[in-house]
User: Fold this.
Amino acid sequence: MSDFSGLRIALSSLYAQRKALQVTGQNIANVNTEGYSRQRVEMAADSGPVTPAIESRYSGPGMGVLTGDTSRLRDQFLELRGYQEHAVDAGLAESQNVLSRIELAFDEPSDDGISKLITSFLAAFDDVANNPDDLAARAQLVEQGKTLAAGFSALDAALATQRSSSINELDSLVAEVNVSAARIAELNNNIASALNNGFSPNELMDERDLLISQLAEQVGVTVRPAENGQMDVFVGGTALVRGTRANPLQVEVGTDPAQTVRVTWASDSYPAGVAGQAGGLLSGVNDVIPRYANGLATAAQELADAVNAVHRTGYALDGSTNRDFFTAASGGGIEVNPAIAADPRLVGAAASATATRDGSIAQQIAELSGVGDRYHRLVVDLGVESQAVNRRVEVQAAIIQHVDAARESAAGVNLDEEMANMLQYQHAYDAAARFLTAVDQALDTLINQTGLVGR
Amino acid sequence: MSSAFRITQRSLSHATLAGLQGNLARLQETQSRLSSGRAIQRPSDSPTGTMASLRLRTDLDRYTQLDRNAEDGKARLGTADNALTDGLALLREVRDSVLQGANGSLSATDREALASQVDGLRASLLAVANTKYLQQPIFAGTAGAATAYADDGTYLGDAGTMSRTIAPGVKVTVNATGEEVFGPAGDDVFKVLADIADDLRTNPSELTTVDLGRLDAGYLRMQNALASVGSRYHQVEIMQDRNKANQLDSQNQLSEVEGVDMPATMVELQLQEVAYQAALGATARVIQPSLVDFLR
Assistant:
């Protein structure tokens, strides 16, 4: 133990407290930074040489303080939980979005929805039945029929538009994911070299964590720490980022009739098990929207079949019969038989060729019960599904809030705490400086004041 | 700093914001329900309510149409009722003429006068038989003829019945065919009236023995037709009233399902406003201070 070791102890403390003060300052500076994890200087007492040897024994109080790494206070398990829950939340939000847009398109219950068009259409048949040889009533019926067919096809078109816009959204989402993945690979590289060169990579790690949490929302990821502080990111069990290499994703639209959309790996076109926003979009594009489009087509077809079955038995004003009221439209869906649309006299309202003032067939069609039932059920199914998703979103929001609070609790900056730390480090710094002065004075006494006896 | 749940400025502001957002979202929902006056704005607001609403709306539209059908039926039956009343009056006049003609003291000139009067009544009855509703002869069945009877008394219509749906599953015949009202072709009242005119001129002895009986039979037939038309008119009226009651009922149910309970919603809005203001006040107090304010 040398006489100067006190200086060394004081110096190590000054260094340590100053660094701790700086880190406190950094924490305060980033109190509102998204994704920032609070940092702490790890200090350890320097006990001096601990292995005694015959001629080298250390009997001093220690060698001061060791300033260790600046560590990030972040709970990795909470982070993983957060990734999972955020992925679920993002997926549900996307489903909710899709369903609510479908609900808007259906616009039920209202005075403008298809349900209203169906009843108006059937009522028009009753008007024809009341005045079978009134051409105005027939023309009105044809118009109602056209409006109904147009209502179905407009809704179908709205669903198709929604689907294609969802596919576009998925495209840009995947592009964004690829950029993030490339950046994470780059960060992995930087972090590894920073560690190898002895720099602190904490801020780089924070940026990487932020990107990963975004990826978790976008495609649902799991992570696994790799060597040299690197982090591997997996989507559905396959590596999106492994070390310093990113593995990009792509969107493929199938050539099958349903045009199934898939997210695949660009390297081998193998489907990727995406969740999160991408998962929600995929289920919207491949399941929800086609399901309602098909349901709608079935409802339209069943209505057309039911009307046609009766209408075929009816006689037109010119005595002709066995004519469909609705025919298949060229672009899919139904339309009013072009012949009837051109000449409303061809509406088969009568039960016989000669009874031109008979409207009993039109009357039968007007009385068809349950032609709108399939459509009503579709709307109610939509309501049930949408409501279920809304509830799940609410529940998930509560979970998210809890998980985020827990993450924030571990990693967030509390200003009160930083203030307290600041005082603590400041006082420690003052004390260390005072100690340095004391040692200095002791040495001064020893060097300058000793041996002066009798001078 | 060990196990206690750390609360940070950020988590505090997040939680506060989330709470305020929730308050505001509830306010907005209540507000939109109030301003639209509808509790169900999209199916997910209440799937069961949506089902009821769709059914009730369909019912309402159906009742409206049934009411129109009934109006049409009433108009047709009313027209027939008037025509038949007129027809019966004409037949009573004919009967008077027959009874007068049967009086043996009448001269040939007097009988000729009576005969031409009967001819005139027959023409009037033909006009009654050709009564039209919306350009359609009401006694011609469902045939597309322009008139029910030709000038010579030939029936141009058919035996078709017209019915109107006036309530779910309830149909009422709203016409009476010429044959039902005026008798089978060849032996209808027009033939009887023509025969009476002939007999007045040439063969007055048959007036009481044959013609009066045939005339009375025709009168009875027309009277029965009138009674039947009248009772059907009444039936339509009753069903129409019932439809109106049902319609009102459906309307009430619909506003119960779809409508907003105004007082309750207003109170709810008030409560939410209070909650929101309280949250804002609390936030203003909680967010501001930190240790910084108290360190010197």
Summary: Chain B has a mean pLDDT of 89.
